[in-house]
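Q: What residues go here?
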């Protein structure tokens, strides 16, 4: 999943970016509202972490213009989910932020653990997931723990759960496919959501990552495990049990 941080405090911006990258997210970070709006309009982010008080353009103005742009472009759901960060904690301020188009609100100072939990919840909601657990056949992805396992034998009837040993990038790939389970996902979409501006992406990066992920799912599932990641020729991939 890919996030945008718009925060003018260098210390806080860098700290949030590092923590979210360590949690497995692709993260872009900018210091003012004008650049934040440009980034938001040119990249399909899952969540935007947006400070209220910003140079060049404040967070509420940026959010208002972003939502208006998304509506004009008829972008599903109005674009990315937005978490507002602010020291303004009055009821009127909260109402203003939420009515402008924020999805959640976090008052400074805050614990990173709480921000991470809110980002995770917002990501699930954006992709229509009511639970942190996503199941596709014998595969279970726990989006809260950022882990996955395959149940060998009858699911729910005493089958053995075998963990899938995933790198952060492999988990991010699997989680995004799981968020779109049953629907084809293009290579370009996967690149946009898995890599940030700092990443050097080679032409076969997605295909190589999918091949490695397939091998790990197969090793965990054993000979009886059905194929789970299917190639859609000239389109991309789909996560689905059995024949796509």
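A:
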């Amino acid at each position: 999943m890919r996030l945008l941080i718009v925060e003018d405090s260098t210390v806080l911006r860098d700290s949030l970016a590092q923590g979210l990258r360590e949690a497995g997210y692709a993260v872009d970070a900018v210091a003012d509202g004008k650049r934040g709006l440009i980034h938001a309009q040119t990249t399909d982010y899952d969540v935007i972490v947006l400070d209220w008080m910003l140079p060049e353009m404040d967070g509420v103005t940026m959010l208002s213009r972003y939502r208006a742009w998304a509506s004009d472009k008829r972008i599903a759901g109005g674009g990315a989910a937005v978490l507002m960060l602010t020291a303004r904690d009055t009821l009127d301020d909260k109402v203003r932020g939420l009515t402008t188009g924020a999805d959640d609100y976090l008052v400074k100072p805050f614990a990173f653990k709480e921000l991470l939990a809110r980002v995770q919840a917002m990501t699930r909601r954006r992709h229509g997931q009511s639970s942190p657990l996503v199941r596709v056949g014998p595969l279970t992805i726990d989006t809260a723990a950022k882990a996955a396992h395959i149940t060998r034998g009858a699911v729910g009837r005493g089958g053995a759960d075998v963990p899938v040993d995933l790198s952060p990038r492999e988990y991010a790939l699997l989680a995004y496919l799981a968020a779109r389970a049953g629907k084809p996902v293009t290579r370009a979409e996967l690149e946009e959501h898995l890599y940030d501006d700092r990443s050097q992406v080679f032409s076969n990066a997605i295909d190589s990552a999918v091949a490695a992920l397939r091998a790990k799912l197969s090793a965990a599932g054993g000979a009886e495990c059905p194929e789970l990641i299917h190639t859609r020729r000239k389109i991309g991939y789909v996560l689905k049990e059995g024949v796509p």
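A: Context that may help when evaluating the design: The chain has a mean pLDDT of 90. Helices lie at 10-22, 33-42, 59-72, 91-100, 112-126, 168-179, 187-194, 205-221.
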